[in-house]
């Protein structure tokens, strides 16, 4: 390369390096850093500067999330231990002792694993609930919004299942069960064995 060609090539590099540096500086990144990057590796610097996220928008989003987390922590810490906002746990407070057979069930089960009876809620409320999943429903609903149960039926009937290696997989929720269970401990589907 001749002396004039080298000078033109260097001037071209100097001029082109401004493009990624200008784009990156508009997004909150270092002009000098991207100028050096663009001078030595123009195309990669251009691509990186184009795909970079705007730093100021990311910082604003991060600050917004920090404020929300701080607000939630203050809300949680201001409550006495065990108290909730009243929405999340009222439906799930279920007595683990079956009122029909007296069997002590595992915590979190909605139906007795011995006799299949629906376990009683500790705090009864007046709102309507789905007979299958016990989630809240509105008067006049045809189907449960949570599990899809046809609300015109009174109680969910048993589902025909087969055992594989001593285990039953609930066809409704996919939870593995022991073969002696009459009902799914997670969703309450009644089983009828082949």
TrEMBL record:
Q: Does the keyword Cell inner membrane apply?
A: no
**RanBP2-type domain: residues covered:** 97-118, 166-190
Per its record, how is this protein called by name? Double zinc ribbon
Q: Which Pfam families match?
A: DZR
Q: List the keywords (alphabetical).
A: Membrane, Metal-binding, Transmembrane, Transmembrane helix, Zinc, Zinc-finger
Q: Which residues cross the membrane?
A: 7-25, 31-52
Q: Does the keyword Zinc apply?
A: yes
Quote one Gene Ontology molecular function term.
zinc ion binding
The record's InterPro entries line, in alphabetical order, gives:
DZR, Znf_RanBP2
């Amino acid at each position: 390369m001749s002396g004039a060609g080298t000078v033109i090539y260097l001037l071209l590099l100097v001029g082109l390096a401004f493009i990624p540096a200008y784009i990156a500086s508009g997004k909150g990144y270092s002009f000098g850093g991207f100028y050096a990057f663009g001078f030595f590796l123009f195309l990669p610097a251009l691509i990186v500067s184009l795909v970079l996220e705007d730093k100021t928008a990311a910082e604003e989003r991060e600050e917004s999330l920090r404020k929300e987390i701080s607000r939630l922590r203050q809300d949680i810490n201001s409550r006495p231990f065990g108290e909730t906002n009243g929405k999340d746990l009222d439906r799930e407070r279920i007595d683990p002792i079956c009122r029909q057979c007296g069997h002590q069930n595992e915590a979190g089960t909605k139906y007795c694993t011995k006799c299949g009876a629906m376990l009683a809620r500790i705090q009864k409320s007046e709102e309507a609930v789905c007979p299958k999943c016990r989630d809240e429903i509105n008067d006049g609903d045809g189907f449960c919004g949570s599990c899809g149960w046809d609300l015109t039926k009174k109680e969910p009937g048993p589902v025909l299942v087969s055992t594989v290696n001593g285990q039953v997989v609930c066809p409704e929720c996919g939870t593995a069960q022991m073969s002696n269970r009459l009902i799914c401990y997670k969703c309450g589907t009644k089983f009828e064995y082949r």
